[in-house]
Amino acid sequence: MTKETNQQWGGRFSEPTDAFVARFTASITFDQRMYRQDIQGSIAHAKMLTEAGVLTPVECADIEQGLAEIQTEIEAGDFPWSIELEDIHMNIEAALTKKIGLTGKKLHTGRSRNDQVATDIRLYVRDEIDNILLEITRFQEGLLGLAKAEASTIMPGFTHLQTAQPVTFGHHLMAWFEMLSRDYERYVDTRKRVNVSPLGAAALAGTTYPINRQITSDLLGFDRPAENSLDAVSDRDFAIEFCATSSILAMHMTRMSEELVLWASSQFNFVNLPDRFCTGSSIMPQKKNPDVPELVRGKSGRVYGHLMSLLTLMKSQPLAYNKDNQEDKEPLFDTIDTIKGCLRAYADMVPALESKKEQMREAALRGFSTATDLADYLTRKGMPFRDAHEVVGKSVAYGLECNKDLAEMSLEELQVFSGDIKADVFDVLTLEGSVAARDHIGGTAPNQVLAAVARGEKLVAAR
Ligand code: ARG
User: Fold this and answer.
1) What's the pTM value of the predicted model, to 2 decimals?
2) Percent of the chain with pLDDT over 70
3) Would the CB of 27 count as within 6 Å of ligand 1?
4) Which CATH number does 14-109 carry?
5) Domain boundaries 114-158+166-357, corresponding CATH code
6) Residue 1 pLDDT more than 70?
7) Is it the case that residue 4 has pLDDT exceeding 60?
8) What average pLDDT score do residues 301-324 get?
9) CB of 114 closer than 6 A to ligand 1?
């Protein structure tokens, strides 16, 4: 008799696994977080086997009971995880067999860890997509509230990070809302390709038992059984797609973060981030650092990295399952944790932002932000737009020389550049006049921002 080999697959082995190799190949340290999905999948499989006459109802009840107890032990922190048992699947199966005896060994009939793990990950990702969707909605609701309150707060709008035209802060916040709506849709769409059942594909070719894949698919809330057994056990597109969707969201959040970091600086001084989302410096007593936006900006690095990891992991893999696939989990799980953390921080923080209206207004007054309005004014008086552009360019050059904004020049000063300029010009040179004039769907006028908020509220309520 040789030394003891692995109890789940050791039949053909003549020596136990090398201790290092056992640790090197094990996934239990990171796949144990899928315990609920693994148990859920096993119960569905056992029920289906019972309908097929492969298990008796008593055996099925024993399996269900045993698995329920195991779940309780895991949740109580009492479960003895074992590296020797390699992964979540074998840890649970061995515990079940220990608990209910021979019947535990029957659970794996007509199944393989290959379809089992694919099922577990899909269930796991599906559950987490649902959590992420809720968190995006919470973030968006916060944005809607803030945008409504800031619908007529004026700030400079930028292109090339140079003052361009005045906009309303509510309008800017609603731009963020739009990015998030697309992210929401992308997760909903990704979920469709996640929610397909691999169970029954077994190792790769299907199984000789009279299984009914529709039953397990329905029991687990999947939309349908996967079409092809080889594809079912080896497809990790859904994980890549989840990471791609998450990368786009992470990218959006870097843009928001960058703006918050700029706006919180004393150079911009547009917003106050609540103290509870900031930290100080151990050496410079005056500092209040925007750590949360900075960190969210930085977290994009690992999310993009995980997308690259998974693409590279799957590159050139021949069908069907390969052990490489075990490497899908850590990038995937870290993406989930990171995205949830970023969303949670922003959903908590953004509604608590305080705008500094005076400073925003003051900044909008600097930088000739109503220059386009003056050009439009001249065009309305009959001047071709290109000529109007030239006239305004000259007045801006003059303003730069004598350090005056357009609205600060006298009528006489302005008329030097064009006789078409009359006293009514000051209606368009004011910030309020400028934003109010952009009064169409998607424009920055306060009433249009309120209309966009109303549409946003409807969209979010319909989810
Ligand atoms: N721990 C493995 C994984 O995560 C489970 C599937 C193992 N299958 C196998 N035939 N070795 O991919």
Assistant:
1) 0.94
2) 99
3) yes
4) 1.10.275.10
5) 1.20.200.10
6) no
7) yes
8) 98
9) yes
